[in-house]
Amino acid sequence: MPQTRTYIAVDLGAESGRVILGEVADGRLTLKEIHRFANGPVDVAGTLRWDFDRLLAEVKTGIGKAAKATQSPPVGIGIDTWGVDFGLLDAEGRLIEPPYHYRDSRTQGMLERAFDTMGKRAIYDHTGIQFMVLNSVYQLLAMRTAEHPALAKTDKLVMMADLFAYFLCGRVVSEYTLASTTQLMDMRTGQWSRAMFEGLDLPMRVMPAVVKPGTIIGSLTPRVAAEIGCERIPVVAVGTHDTASAVAAVPASPGRWAYLSSGTWSLMGVEIPQAIIDDKTFEHEFTNEGGVEGTIRLLKNIMGLWLIQECKRQWQRGGHDLSYAEIADMARKAAPFAAYIDVDDRRFLAPGDMTPRINEHLMRTGQTPITDKGQIVRVVMESLALKYRSVMERIEDVVGHRVDVLHIVGGGIQNELLCQFTANALGKKVITGPIEATAAGNILMQARAVGQIGSLEELRAIVRNSFELKEYTPQDAAAWTKHYKKHTP
Question: What backbone torsions phi and psi does residue 330 show, to the nearest 5 degrees?
Answer without folding.
Answer: -60, -40
